[in-house]
Structure formats: C-alpha cells, structure tokens
Amino acid sequence: MNDALLIRNDIDGVCTLTLNRPDAYNSLSMELMQALIAEFGLIADDNSVRVVVLKGSGRGFCSGHDLKQIIGEGEEDYYQCTFDTCSELMQSIVNLPIPVIAQVHGVATAAGCQIVASCDLAVASDKSRFATPGVNIGLFCSTPMVALSRSVSKKHAMEMLLLGDMISAAKAAEIGLVNWVVADELVEQKTDEVAGKIAASSRKAISIGKQAYVRQIDKPLDEAYVECSRVMTENMLTHDAGEGIDAFINKRKPRWQHR
C-alpha cells in the first residue's frame, strides 16, 4: 500500500493524480493541498504531460476539508491559511495550461465538490453524490461557492449552497457540474477514453485554448472577440497549426511536436 498522500502515474501523456487518504475519504489536509499545488506546478512545466486526471482512492472522491485538523488548530491565522491554501489549489487547477479531468466515485462534498467544479471536465459514477453541505454545520460553503457559481446556474448553485442536500450524479449532469455519468464499473474506462482523446491532440493548441477560455469568459462580448482573434493569430503561427492544416489537406495523420 502506497503511503504517499498523493500518487502520480504518467502514461502516454496522461498524468493521473490520486488523492490517497482513503481512511479520511481523501479529505483535504493542509499537507495534501500543498502536495497538489506543488505537483500542479511541476506539471505546468512538463511538456510530456497533455492532460491530468484527478481521482480519489478508497470509497469516495473527496469529502472536503479535514475538519478534525482545522478545529484541532483552533486559531484564526490557521483558518485563514487553510482557506487561502485551498483557494490557491483551486486556482492552480483553473490556471494549469492543460485540461484537468475529475474522475468521481462515491462522494464529492464541500471542497471536494469545489474541486469537481474547478476541473475542466468531469466523469462521474452513477453511484456518486455531490453536496456543499456546510450550512448544515454552521459553516457556509463560501469558497466552494466561487467554483460552483462559475460552473452551474445561479439558482442551482444557491439550491446546493442553501439546502446542503446531496444530489445524484444524474442531477449533477443535468445542472452542468459533470459531463458524463456512467456505470460505476465503467468510470475509469470512460475517463481513460476522454483523457486519451485529449492527449492525442497538440499540447500547444490545447494550452493556448484553455488559457484563452479562462481569460475571455468574463469579458464583454466585444472584448472577448478581440482577445480571441489575437489568440487565433498566435495559434496560427505555431508549428502544430501548420502541421495540422497540412495533414488535413493531404489526408494524413498529423505529427505533433507540441510547439
């Protein structure tokens, strides 16, 4: 049994990161959050990685913050450090230049649900469940709210935040929190399929596109078009765009150099 808090496995451009606190439903201790932030920093500069899969070990994906650790410290400075670190983690997912796919089984609650909302794509088991239940313990899920409100509509976000109820994987797909819901035994296979398709593309093009999406999404329409016209021009000047267009015209498979 691997005792590391975070397990990394790289195969054919797909980097799988496994949260490895199964006895605590992979709750986000300070140490686990710091390990994730550090790993995303390494991945950002690793041109061999074209897509990241984030999953949990044991019975569930992630149950949120490690409340035993937080309450055990009992100091305002530690609380602030915890939530600042969590915010840094979520932004490291969003700002990573390549896509991150959440592979969800079991529960994804509170900051665990926040991770799913922060990822670019999500594959869920039909047995998985999601919640932002902080209101039930007097601790409103304010930081999860940031990611959730940017992933689903206002009324669906407020429903989850105000009621704190568990929702099914089917409901999560209906409101846009996850992309695919598959039978529990097929969740890894579906994730591999999605990750493999992304990994087969040009890392350069994917990276340009993801970063442009993040920058343009909150801009007014005219500014978004100015930004993305500039990005398309930048993309056209890359090696892989020239290679891809030539391969399409000549009906052959492109040979990406990821530059």
TrEMBL record:
Gene Ontology terms describing biological process: fatty acid metabolic process
Gene3D superfamilies attached to this UniProt entry: 2-enoyl-CoA Hydratase, Chain A, domain 1, Lyase 2-enoyl-coa Hydratase, Chain A, domain 2
InterPro entries on file: ClpP/crotonase-like_dom_sf, Enoyl-CoA_hydra/iso, Enoyl-CoA_hydra_C, Mitochondrial_ECH-domain
Listed CDD domains: crotonase-like
Molecular functions per Gene Ontology: hydro-lyase activity
Family per record: Belongs to the enoyl-CoA hydratase/isomerase family.
Alphabetical list of NCBIfam families matching this protein: PRK08139.1
Function: May play a role in fatty acid biosynthesis and insulin sensitivity.
Protein name: Enoyl-CoA hydratase domain-containing protein 3, mitochondrial
Species of origin: Amphritea opalescens
